[in-house]
UniProtKB/TrEMBL annotation:
UniProt GO molecular function: electron transfer activity; flavin adenine dinucleotide binding
Keyword set, alphabetical order: FAD, Flavoprotein
Family: Belongs to the ETF alpha-subunit/FixB family.
Domain of life the protein comes from: Bacteria
Co-factor binding comment: Binds 1 FAD per dimer.
Domain Electron transfer flavoprotein alpha/beta-subunit N-terminal: residue ranges: 9-198
Name of the protein in question: Electron transfer flavoprotein subunit alpha/FixB family protein
Pfam families, per the entry: ETF, ETF_alpha
Statement: the UniProt record of this protein carries the keyword Flavoprotein: yes
GO BP annotation list: fatty acid beta-oxidation using acyl-CoA dehydrogenase
Length: 334
């Protein structure tokens, strides 16, 4: 392999129902930094149908160029056509780095592509940097159950590929003055090439819970006492147009579904407002939420570590404080 032939940082842009996912914009933010360090271009790769208007957004969020592969077959995500499209673009354009969100789609697609093009893939990264000496990508991820952070490099093959956890990287401010090029890519594929077809997409109730996209999260821990007490947190979340999330202790206890778990082995979130109710603030929990813009912690133990990251700390019983907050919010509203 001649690594000099490989240029540019590519970000796979994930979309559902033509809506670009937050993680893709976050990856454009990180990708911009990596591309600038390498003095190369940042390219957004969008695979979809009827999405030409969205290509502008990708430039506003940092891309120099958008490769847009459009075909009706790409309307709904399917592994085979997306893998074919992405593999063909990588073969043709020879990027140096390719980033995917560590989402259900990214985790399905990225390993398949890395096997086809015979390169490495570091999954679930929480940090990406360029090594100043070698220009290799340093891909860091938790390893051995989260007890250590491992930094992985892929010096012998190109592109260097990784999936990145949602909520870890920061998207850039939208800049509508930015300009860039859009190149349409033709991927010759049709339904007759497929051995299956999607007849209908039925959304599971579970899928609607996407705490990574919420701007307000009301999170409950063991301190809320019992599963039914999530009801009052749901009420607070409803008042604030937010969602409920949780610590691992209550997920492990079966009080709430794993989809809600915040932390090192759960989801990484970065909402505008994060309530930690009856959560001690273990390091593994903090790893998933400490980048939130504003954190309010309610805990009856004034020494709880959660107060170290909180912008506002309320020492007291969550059962007394949350109902007061709800009633105050209702007073303000009406
Ligand atoms: P506790 O630590 O039991 O804390 C309960 C808190 O509630 C206490 O601070 C207490 O003072 C307070 N409290 C009690 N009653 C009240 C009341 N009435 N009102 C107000 N406050 C009250 N944890 C995660 O959350 N996410 C992860 O992804 C995660 N991954 C992990 C990965 C590994 C490899 C390991 C080893 C651990 C991981 N953990 C994770 C577990 C983590 O170490 C903690 O055990 C867990 O976060 C504790 O949850 P908690 O704060 O709800 O419970």
């Amino acid at each position: 392999m001649n690594s000099k032939e490989y240029k540019g940082v590519f970000v796979f842009i994930e979309q559902r129902e033509c809506k670009i996912s937050k993680v893709s914009l976050e990856l454009l933010g990180k990708g911009r930094e990596l591309a600038d360090n390498l003095n190369e271009e940042l390219i957004a790769v969008l695979i979809g149908y009827n999405m030409i208007d969205s290509t502008k957004e990708l430039i506003y969020y940092g891309a120099d160029k958008v490769f847009y592969a459009e075909n009706r077959i790409f309307e709904v995500y399917m592994t085979e056509p997306y893998a074919k499209a992405m593999t063909s673009i990588i073969y043709d354009k020879k990027p140096e780095i390719v980033l995917f969100g560590a989402t259900a789609i990214g985790r399905d697609l990225a390993p398949r592509i890395s096997a086809r093009i015979h390169t490495g893939l570091t999954a679930d990264c929480t940090s990406l940097e360029i090594d100043e000496e070698s220009n290799n990508l340093l891909m860091t991820r938790p390893a051995f159950g989260g007890n250590i952070l491992a930094t992985i490099v892929c010096p012998d093959y190109r592109p260097q590929m990784s999936t990145v956890r949602p909520g870890v990287m920061q998207k850039l401010e939208k800049d509508t003055r930015r300009v860039g090029k859009v190149e349409k890519i033709d991927i010759p594929i049709s339904e007759s090439d497929m051995s299956y077809k999607v007849l209908e997409v039925v959304k599971e109730e579970k899928e609607k819970i996407n705490i990574e996209e919420a701007n307000v999260l009301v999170s409950g821990g063991r301190g809320i006492g019992k599963p039914e007490n999530f009801d009052i947190l749901k009420e607070l979340a409803k008042e604030l147009k937010g969602q409920v999330s949780a610590s691992r202790a209550v997920v492990d206890a079966g009080w709430i579904d794993k989809n809600h778990q915040v932390g090192q082995t759960g989801k990484t979130v970065r909402p505008g407002l994060y309530f930690a109710c009856g959560i001690s603030g273990a390091i593994q929990h903090l790893a998933g939420m400490e980048e939130s813009d504003f954190i309010i912690a309610i805990n009856k133990d004034s020494e709880a570590p959660i107060f170290e990251v909180a912008d506002v700390g309320i020492v007291g019983d969550v059962h007394a404080i949350v109902p007061k907050l709800i009633s105050r919010l209702q007073d303000v509203k009406y």
